Amino acid sequence: MSNRKLDVEFTLWLKERQTALLRAARVICFDAQNAEDVLQEALADVYERWNKVKEHENPEAYVMRVMVSKHADMRRKWLRKQQSNETSWELAENIRAISDQSDDVAQRLLVQSALKTLTGIQRAVLVLVYEYGLVLKEIATILELPIGTVASHLARGKAAVAAHLELIPEFERSIRNEISGSKDRPQILFGEVVDE
Q1: RNA polymerase sigma factor 70 region 4 type domain location, by residue (predicted)?
Q2: Separation CA 132–CA 128 (nearest Å)
C-alpha cells in the first residue's frame, strides 16, 4: 500500500476517534497538558506501525495501551529527575545538629552540597545507618533490596560524600591562591592534588 493511501487511511481513522482518544488520555494522565503530549507521542508510534496496527482487532485498545506505556515512561522520567534533585533536609539537619557548634555556615553548606550529589536511595541508606542505627539486613528488609545492593549504596554514598568534602577545600584554596596571585598553589588533576 502506498504511503499516501496509508496517510489518508490513518487520518480518516483518527478523525473519527480523536475525541474519544483524547478523553481516554485525560483519564490515563489526570491532566490535559500531559494527556495531549502522551496522545501525540502514542499516535506518532501508531502511525509508524499503521500497516500492522490497522489489522489489529481493536486499534483503539492498542492506542490506549501505547498511551499507558508513554505515560509510565513520562512518570519514570519525572521521578528520576525529582530523585536526582531532592535533598535529604532531614539528614542535613541531623548532621548539622551533631556537628561541632564551632562549624561555620560554609561547612554546613558543604555537607548539604555533598548530599545533593547522592541519589535518593544512597541518602536513604545513609539516613537509616547513621540516623536510625540500622544494620544492613534491616535496611535491606525495609527497602526490599538485596543486602549486597544496600551495602553498595552505602559504600558509594559514603565515598561520594567523602570525595566531595575532601575536594572542595582544595578548590577553595586554589581559588584563594589564584586571587592572591600566589605561585604556591596546588594543581588538581583527575581528582588528586599535586604540588607543582
Answers
A1: 109-160
A2: 5
- Side chain identity at residue 167, one-letter code: L
Name the pLDDT band for 61 (thresholds 50, 70, 90): confident
30: which 3 cell numbers?
Answer: 489526570
Is residue 90 a contact partner of residue 127, using CB atoms and an 8 Å limit?
Answer: yes
Q: Give the separation between CA 7 and CA 104, rounded to whole angstroms.
A: 67
If you average pLDDT over residues 69-78, what whole number do you get? 86
pTM to 2 decimals?
A: 0.43
Dihedral over Cα of 20, 26, 32, 37: its sign: negative
DSSP assignment of 64-81, as one string?
HHHHHHHHHHHHHHHHHH
Please tell me the class of the 3-85 domain. mainly alpha
pLDDT tens digits, residue range 112-131? 777 777 887 888 888 778 77
Domain extents for the chain? 3-85, 92-194
Contacts of 122 (CB under 8 A, 6+ apart): 153, 154, 156, 157, 160
Contacts of 171 (CB under 8 A, 6+ apart): 188
Q: Tell whether domain 92-194 is in CATH 3.40.50.620.
A: no
Three-class SS state of 69: helix
